[in-house]
UniProtKB/TrEMBL annotation:
This is Transcriptional regulator, GntR family with amin. Residues 36-104 form the HTH gntR-type domain. The keyword DNA-binding applies. InterPro entries: Aminotransferase_I/II_large, HTH_trans_reg/aminotransferase, PyrdxlP-dep_Trfase, PyrdxlP-dep_Trfase_major, Tscrpt_reg_HTH_GntR, WH-like_DNA-bd_sf, WH_DNA-bd_sf. Pfam families: Aminotran_1_2, GntR. It comes from Deinococcus grandis. The lineage of its organism: Bacteria, Thermotogati, Deinococcota, Deinococci, Deinococcales. Keywords: DNA-binding, Pyridoxal phosphate, Transcription, Transcription regulation. GO terms for molecular function: DNA binding; DNA-binding transcription factor activity; pyridoxal phosphate binding.
């Protein structure tokens, strides 16, 4: 019969029980004031001693009566602890030999490196995450990559989700490429908005641009492929490529986009943002687009066209996507077009899409199946309602007017900095680039602005090598009044830094 677990009373119920035994080569520390039961404390401490090598395999454990008497507990406490050790394989019991540490218990290798909390020592460290975290920095934040929702039709938005909730609930997996209705709606959408002809079978629904790029670099590219990237460029995309084990070669850009010439090296893939180069903001001219397509044909390469905010244009005529040009020239299979609804609607829907030729798309669908088996059906249903009902197109028209007003308010306050700074990338998108005079280091101007409660970004983390001397000003999440107020502070800071640098007698006035 197992004795009750209640230990004999001592004069100090809160203090530790006796901590040494003559038969174990380490102290035991059982405490009555812990929430952990006494038998669990005893089993844990013996188990830790076995795992650390203090009790090698085959070591006999003290008899239950002896150990109970030494510790000042009932025999039942020790018996229950031993029962736990027998159950989990730490100990073994044999007739005539008593209870002992299991013979085959492994002992740690001498001088084996140990990582924190048992993590393997060979596990590499984590490089800094190349994205801005959620939320805003203190003050007025010209953060890149966000969009406002002030123009969102909340009635249509709520109705879309209400309709999605009424959809039949299936007990089966959905199409990993995306529901056919949504793929058809997205194909029609890029046809209307971007002039890209596509069929539903050409479309894969993704969890956004980075998700799409992860699928591409892991399912289309052979291991260790060489990839060309714009420099400066989208830092998160660069890290995706590096984490997948590919070789990234930076290629310079100018106001007309990626520089393509006879010196452009061969590669299996090039990643570009031709509609609004990220982060400098230029649009790739038609001659460069044709040159890039010719480069891809010559080197048997693929092109990833990231059209992350091409819906927002301000007075500039739209240029055909690379994918549309490629189709016209008979090279449509070389371009994978990446679109997203993060800027069109909100990043919270976590939905983008890829338009690609069937041989490429089938590989992406296979990778998507093995990764997560496809996007959530209810989210797809709501987005289908918004797209097919014309709500997204109307929202884009409203948003385009809104962002044009914000952009005008911002650029209007910065146009008087002739000789000290000039704006780039103002024809499209949700950010502009303020290029500074060489005598005005971007880091110094940004630091002064931070002290004044205005947050901007330099191009250091977007560039491999020496970064352009410029500030990145995202206006997607601001109102016209906020943009104008922030622009006045930025202009004042530039003039103040210019005065200190002796460029001109500018003042903060």
């Amino acid at each position: 019969m197992v004795a009750p677990l209640k230990a004999p009373l001592s004069t100090d119920l809160r203090g530790p029980l006796p901590t040494r035994t003559d038969e174990l080569p380490f102290p035991l520390d059982l405490r009555r004031d812990q929430t952990e039961a006494l038998h669990a404390q005893l089993a844990r401490q013996i188990r830790e001693a076995v795992l650390s090598g203090l009790l090698p395999g085959g070591t006999p454990l003290p008899g239950t009566r002896t150990l109970a008497r030494t510790l000042g507990v009932t025999r039942g406490v020790v018996e229950t602890a031993y029962a736990e050790l027998l159950a989990d394989g730490t100990a073994q019991a044999e007739v005539g030999r008593g209870t002992r540490v299991r013979d085959e218990t492994p002992t740690p290798a001498p001088n084996a490196p140990a990582g924190p909390a048992g993590v393997p020592a060979w596990l590499p460290g984590i490089p800094p995450l190349p994205v801005d975290g959620p939320g805003t920095r203190p003050g007025l934040d010209f953060r890149v990559g966000v969009t406002g929702t002030a123009t969102l039709d909340l009635r249509a938005w709520r109705q879309a989700w209400s309709d999605a909730a009424r959809e039949p609930v299936s007990g089966d997996y959905a199409d990993p490429a995306g529901e056919h209705r949504l793929r058809a709606a997205l194909a029609a959408f890029v046809g209307r908005q971007r002039g890209l002809g596509a069929q539903p079978e050409d479309v894969l629904v993704t969890g956004g641009t980075l998700h799409a790029l992860n699928l591409i670099v892991r399912s289309v590219l052979p291991p260790g492929s060489r990839v060309l990237m714009e420099n400066p460029g989208y830092r998160a995309a660069r890290q995706v490529l590096l984490d997948a084990g590919h070789e990234v070669l930076p290629v310079p850009v100018d106001g007309d986009g990626l520089i393509v010439n006879a010196d452009t090296p061969a590669a299996r893939l090039v990643y570009v943002t031709p509609s609004h180069q990220f982060p400098l903001g230029g649009r790739m001219c038609l001659s460069r687009r044709l040159a890039l397509l010719e480069w891809a044909a010559r080197h048997d390469a693929l092109i990833v066209e990231d059209d992350y905010d091409g819906e927002f244009r301000y007075g500039a005529p739209p240029l055909p996507p690379l994918a549309a040009l490629a189709a016209q020239t008979g090279a449509g299979g070389r371009v994978m077009y990446l679109g997203t609804l993060s800027k069109v609607l909100t990043p919270s829907v976590r939905t983008g899409f890829v338009v690609a030729a069937p041989p490429l798309l089938s590989r992406l669908v296979r990778a998507r199946t093995l990764l997560d088996f496809g996007p959530p059906v209810q989210v797809q249903a709501a987005l289908t309602h918004l797209l097919t009902g014309g709500h997204v197109d109307r929202h884009i028209r409203r948003s385009r007017r809104w962002h044009a007003q914000v952009r005008a308010a911002l650029t209007g306050t910065l146009n008087g900095l002739d000789g000290l700074a000039h704006l780039g990338g103002i024809e499209a998108g949700l950010h502009v680039c303020l290029h500074l005079h060489p005598a005005l280091p971007a880091r110094d101007v940004a630091a002064q602005l931070t002290a004044q409660g205005v947050q901007v970004t330099t191009l250091d983390t977007y560039t491999l090598g020496e970064a352009p001397n410029a500030l990145l000003l995202g206006h997607g999440g601001l109102s016209a009044a906020q943009a104008a107020a922030g622009g006045r502070v930025i202009a004042g800071a530039v003039r103040s830094c210019a005065t200190r640098a002796g460029l001109a007698p500018y003042s903060d006035a």
